[in-house]
Design brief:
This protein is an alpha/beta fold. It is built from 26 helices and 15 strands. Strand 14 and strand 15 form a beta hairpin. GO terms for molecular function: acyltransferase activity; malate dehydrogenase (decarboxylating) (NADP+) activity; metal ion binding; NAD binding.
Amino acid sequence: MAKITKEAALLYHSQGKPGKIEVVPTKPYSTQTDLSLAYSPGVAEPCLEIEKNPQDAYKYTAKGNLVAVISNGTAVLGLGDIGALSGKPVMEGKGLLFKIYAGIDVFDIEVDEKDPDKFIEAVKAIAPTFGGINLEDIKAPECFEIERRLKEELDIPVMHDDQHGTAIISSAGLLNALEVAGKKIEDVKIVVNGAGASAVSCTKLYITLGARLENIVMLDSKSVISNDRTDLNDQKRYFATNRTNIHTLEEAIKGADMFLGLSKGDVLNQDMVRSMAPSPIVFALANPTPEISYEAAMASRPDVLMATGRSDYPNQINNVIGFPYIFRGALDTQAKAINEEMKLAAVHAIAGLAKQPVPDVVNEAYKVNNLTFGPEYFIPKPVDPRLITEVSIAVAKAAMQSGVARKNIDSWEDYQVRLRELMGYESKLTRQLYDTARRNPQRVVFAEGVHPSMLKAAIEARSEGICHPILLGNDERIQKLADELDLSLEGVEIINLRHDREAERRERYAHILAEKRAREGATFHEANDKMFERNYFGMMMVETGEADAFITGIYTRYSNTIKVAKEVIGIRPEYKHFGTMHILNTKKRTYFLADTLINRHPDTDTMIDIAKL
């Protein structure tokens, strides 16, 4: 990741239109009629409907997709109490993340009020505008009381993300790290360094998941939080340990199974990590400097399971994996709250996603070939496009099952489609293509069966039921790769085109090709040699009707692939030209672009052929 300089950060925020968010109209406004409908006199009609039935605000206004990100600026990132206005760039940034990851609109609200009672009254007064409230960067212990009262007194979802976002993501990471380590949550000893809002919420959620309070030691900036201390507030007193013989982090961490750091950088050293139990779990979440660096922790012992809050190391505990999708599920069910059931549903959905095969778009974003569940990947990446469906659906289901939903979702399959369409991952066209393919699955040859992307694509296509995949390649290499990626080859045909058992088929294909290209001087021996090449063999499968489609291109230049297609399959007699077409999906519509690669400066006849094709 490139180093972020002060100059670059200030330029990013100031260039063009200052800030990071804007309001965009969602209805037509080009005519006088449009404007009369948008405002006076037409706007009176929905006003009257909402007066009769306040729930109709979700029907006629943006309330159902609008979240308030509200802060008083008393605990902004690692900057501390810098004031409400100074924290505005952070709140705008949170709004940007809501929008790009879950399609949720945000108004950032900076309230210049430190008194909890007055702050609560201000939030309550503006709450009717919103479908949900995300509290942000409010210092402890005031944040606990503010959130508690707002949840009690409002009928929309309220969540302090600094508490619960970190708790949800780290809990998912903990469950998976324990699975990798072969440990049970009820047995592990946990040391928590830090006693602020995030630390308290994380630890409480761990207990909900099965951790035992007596196995937890928490430290604040002074020492171990123990029963013999007289300076504890209610939040800290809950975690006070009976072990009054330990006072420092060095003493507390001996034999511990997990370290959770939500404090400050460089407080954990290598000797402390070495003193932990086998396969220790170290979540060093202080930012930008963790409690121990990734390099130092991994160098201390080989069995460390490490997570940080940074994107440049494996297993990032990043709230963006959670809050957009938690609010998405809550908004779409018009939930009255975000309750424990919904948070736990998010935990298990996030944990489960890390165990599924990783899409290529994620691998490519992190410049790796095959992220698989294990020590270096037990938390999903923020760019994973499946989060919007996995987490939002889990949260929505929990809202309905726990009784806080005011709107039921009748079809989870349709809801999944809507979520994918919302984010531009799917369109009506692609859905129609999928549905058509499922009704009549075709035989599709995948040329580079030994490449991770091609193998995963074939298996995904099989699991979606859209084709009968045929992989070309060495059986043993493909099986080994599948084992490495933890993928099942059940239902996938493998053809080792160079094996002796395919000699008869190669010879048959060679005779067909030689006869077809005889006028160009092709011989059987030349054609037979070509049958050892993936593209010739695969396209001959299509030409002979032994397959219906052929996918290639990872190891072959496009021009070479087209040359083989023209030679083996050819052009239909009624055409003189062939072309290519790209489908471009946008959130608003789908475009077909042709011809994009073959015919440069096409004349009229060429363009007519392309249009007919």
